[in-house]
Write a structure and sequence with these properties.
The protein is an alpha/beta fold and 210 residues long. The chain has an eight-stranded parallel barrel with strand order 1-2-3-4-5-6-7-8. The protein has a two-stranded antiparallel ribbon with strand order 9-10. It has a single domain, classed as TIM Barrel, CATH 3.20.20.70. It starts with a strand and ends with a helix.
């Protein structure tokens, strides 16, 4: 089975194009001013215009107002929304777009609560819980606490990089992964060699599973 992949925190057209050439399934654009990987509407528009067909563009928000989300959607044709803050299910579902809800995982109770709450999410994204942070921390969590059988699509995130991605997939049984800081030179600037190494590891793992 192919392991699906997303590289988040894109700020440059050239990084998004390279990720697409390497076979990534999705790229992430962050519309949260508190992030070092934040993009302007103009940056986002340029990236979306350059991305080839069938590469999904995901817009990431953290505790944005509905007006702020709609303003982005009016200017940037996002395929999927990703909510990384404290948004409730009713808020997430109002935009007529598939959505991913990020869950900061401390224990299995966090996972169970998310499954019960975000029943119409396209997927749940499990990330490391770091006090005061909403993702992009480069920290992992204990993958062993993930239930072996989850009846919902889900994505593994948090501290993933070329050196640990295969181990993470094996231990967690993830079928989709989301990487940001693990393939960067500095925040928002991707490292081409790291992206290549990451995708090679993901693709080789997928082939070996088949």
């Amino acid at each position: 089975m192919k392991i699906r992949s997303k590289i988040c925190g894109m700020t440059r057209v050239e990084d998004a194009l390279l990720a697409a050439r390497l076979g990534v399934d999705a790229i992430g654009l962050i519309f949260f001013a508190g992030s070092k990987r934040h993009v302007t509407l103009q940056q986002a528009q340029a990236i979306v215009r350059a991305v080839p067909p069938f590469v999904t563009v995901v817009g990431l928000f953290v505790n944005a107002s509905a007006v702020e989300v709609q303003e982005v959607l009016a200017h940037v044709p996002l395929d999927v929304l990703q909510f990384h803050g404290d948004e409730g299910a009713e808020f997430c579902r109002q935009f007529q777009r598939p959505y991913i809800k990020a869950i900061r995982v401390c224990n299995t109770g966090d996972i169970e609560a998310a499954i019960a709450t975000y029943t119409d999410a396209r997927a749940l994204l499990f990330d490391a819980a770091v006090a005061g942070q909403y993702g992009g921390t480069g920290q992992t969590f204990d993958w062993q606490i993930l239930p072996r059988q989850l009846n919902r699509p889900w994505i593994l995130s948090g501290g993933l990089k070329p050196e640990n991605i295969a181990s993470a997939i094996r231990q967690s049984h993830a079928q989709a992964v989301d990487v940001s800081s693990g393939v960067e030179i500095t925040a928002g600037i991707k490292d081409g060699q790291k992206m290549q190494a990451l995708m090679a590891a993901i693709n080789s793992f997928g082939l070996s599973v088949d």
